[in-house]
What does this fold into?
Amino acid sequence: MIKDIRIAIIGAGMGGLALASALSRLGIQAKVFEQTKNFTRLGAGIQMSPNAVKALRGMGLEANVRRRGFQPENWANREANSGDMMFELRLGKEAEALYGAPYLQMHRADLHSALLEATPPDWLHLGHKLLAVDTTPSGLSLHFENAKSIEADLVIGADGLHSIIREILLGPSPLNATGRVAYRAVFPASLMKAPIGPCTKWWGEDRHIVLYYVSSKSDEVYFVTSLPDDDWKDESWSAQGDMTVVREAFEHFHEEVRQALSACPHVHRWAIMDRPSLKQWHGNGMVLLGDAAHPMTPYMAQGAAMALEDAVVLARALAKSTNLGSALGIFQQKRSARTAKAQAVSQANTWMRAETDPGWCYGYDPWTEEL
Ligand SMILES: Cc1cc2nc3c(=O)[nH]c(=O)nc-3n(C[C@H](O)[C@H](O)[C@H](O)COP(=O)(O)OP(=O)(O)OC[C@H]3O[C@@H](n4cnc5c(N)ncnc54)[C@H](O)[C@@H]3O)c2cc1C
It folds into this structure.
C-alpha cells in the first residue's frame, strides 16, 4: 500500500465522495475539496444499475440505497405514440440473480447523501473552489478561491464536466455541445391522475423521454428528456425550463407520457454535453476520474455508475501498489476501454432500443476486477 501520501480529491460529487468512501474502507487517508458551500436537494433521478450497486456494496451502502431506492420489475422501451414494446429488459429479482445486484432508481440527492454518510466528516472541506495548482519541490500546491492553499502529493480531479484538473493537465478544450437538451423534474406521484410504468423509455423519431419512480414508496416520479435544441448551451442546475414547451414537444406521445407531463409543475433545463475519450488520464501527480475523464451523454444511464466504478478501482490500485506511477497506470489501463465503450454507446443512443444484452455492463464488479 502507498503510505504517508497526501491525497487531495477535488469535487464532492458522485465520483469524489465514492472515492473518499472507498479509500476510507481501505485505510487510506484523503481530503475532499468541494466548491459548493451547502448541498441542496436538486430535482433529478438517477438509475443505479447492478454494476453501480456492486460498487456501493463494497462501501457498505447497499442496504442504504435499497431502502431509499425503487426496484423496477422491468425497463420498458416503447414506441412514442402507439406504446408498442420495442424491447423489454426484465429487472427485479431476475436481474438481481443474473447480475449479482439489484437495479435501483433513486433521487439523485438520496444517492449523494448515502455517499456523504460513508465519507469521514473531517475529510470534507466545503466552500473550497480550486483555482490553480503549482508544482513545488515538495509536491503540489493547491490554491483555492477562499485564499487558502494546501500541499498534496496526489490530486484527484473528480471535478466533473468542466474539470479544472483536466485543463491543468491537458490544456483547454471545448466541450462537445450535442445540440440537445435534457428537461428533467422530480414531482409527487400524487399529482398524477394515473400511475406510470416502473421505468419506461418512450422513443420518438428525433426525441425521447424516460419516466420512472425514484423512491421506494413510489411517491416521487422523475422524467428526463432528450430534445433537439441548438441554442441552449447552459448545463447549470439552476436553469429553469418551461413546462408548456415540454408538453408541446411531447404532445404527440402516448397518453401515459402526456398525463405525467400535465401533472408536473416545474422543470429544469440542461444542455447535453460530452467529450471524446482521453488518451491520457494522469501526469504530474494528478489524475482524472468520472466525468472529468470521460463525460458521456445520459442515454445509457451510466455516467455516475462509471464514476463509482472508477473510484473503487483507483482506491484498490492505490491500496495494492507501493508506487504512485504504477497505481495510476493500473487505474487508467483498467478503466479506459470500458469507459470509452460506455461513451460510444451512450453517444449512439442505441442502448435498449432493440434487443440488448447488458451483461458486459451490469455484470461488472469493480471490487473483484483483477488488477
Ligand atoms: C440528464 C442527465 C441524466 C443522468 N442520469 C444518470 C443515470 O441515470 N445514471 C448514471 O449513472 N448517471 C447519470 N447521469 C450522469 C451523472 O450525473 C454524472 O456522470 C455524474 O454525476 C458524474 O460524477 P462526477 O463525480 O464525475 O461529477 P459531478 O457529480 O458533476 O461532481 C463534480 C463535483 O466537483 C465540484 N467541482 C467542480 N469544479 C470544482 C472546483 N474547481 N473546485 C472544487 N470543486 C469543484 C462540483 O461542484 C461537483 O460537486 C446523468 C447525467 C445527466 C446530465
The mean pLDDT is 96. Residues 10-16, 33-36, 46-47, 128-130, 158-160, 164, 182, 184, 224, 270, 290-292, 298, 301-305, 307 surround flavin-adenine dinucleotide (CB under 6 Å).
